[in-house]
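Same chain as my last thread, 359 residues:
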Amino acid sequence: MQTIYLLLAAVTPLVVLDIWYTGIYLFWIMKVSVIIYLVLFGLLPIIFHYSSTIQEKIIFLNLVQWPFNVDFAKPELLGVKGTRNFYLKTDEQVTIGLWQTLPRSLLNDSSIVTDDDYEAVLSNANQPVFLYMHGNSGNRASSHRLELYKLFQNLDYHVICFDYRGYGDSEGAKLSEMGVVTDSKYVLEWLLKIVNSTVPVFVWGHSLGTGVSTHALALLAGKNVQPAGLFLEAPFSNIADEINEHPLAQPFRHLPWFHWVVIDPFYKNHLRFETDKHIKKVQCPVMILHAEDDNIIPISLGEKLFNIATSYHGNDTNHIQLVRIDSSYGLGHKYICRYKELPNIIKSFVEMTHQNQTD
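reply #2:
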């Protein structure tokens, strides 16, 4: 018994010391957890609310430039054949970098070499012309965009793609919704002036580019200027709906200040991208393409836009169409360009718009 007492006497201080250290450890864990919580759900949201610069960077993600170290003057190094690099200066004196890609039938034409040659090809084009407006992050050389250019080229269409201000090798002017919309409007007007009026020009917007393209077309509608058709790949109804549904917003949506802190500042700073309002003014036929497994912009937002658009345009299914792409294809947000039915969808839409114009 005496031995047991001696053991207890020896062990008890160690147990007490271990409990004491454990208590200190738990206290510091709690303290760090509280600090992290206050930073994540208190300090950072407040900083975000009052910083228009941070809001712009999050919307446009133009700092994420991929691929890196692109030589835009040599698109052939990226596997894009029959392509020239050139620049336009907008009415706001912003220099925009562009590519012009020839249709498949002209790839072997050795007479097309200089910028003047390429511009002459556009002026005398017989095939449809596609103007591509990309989403946020990356630039016109991003891989999924290259895939789409090649698809257009294989369909024997001309392609014009460009980078908004602050992207790629375009001038680093201040980013804003009106800024990128103005850039896009200028490029589309330039293209429509060059291309023969009998040749259809189509606009293709992806992701953020759907908001940009629809806004640009709404402004041009006031001048009675419209392309032959508009493709909206993975669109959203407006920026408030997109932010509310974005995966990164889910941890914050339950908080009572979410709308005031996160959504209101975008509207206050005119970063709205209200496609659901602008599409009312778009007079050309619209094709909406959306994958069911898109986890960046849920298909529910594409369907919402479709329903709003059809209500504006009298439920005319020729004017507004929606293609839902089954999740089994695994195309997500960026790879509708790989959808096996896409070439036929594009060709049918192009033919439908041409027939409507000739009727």
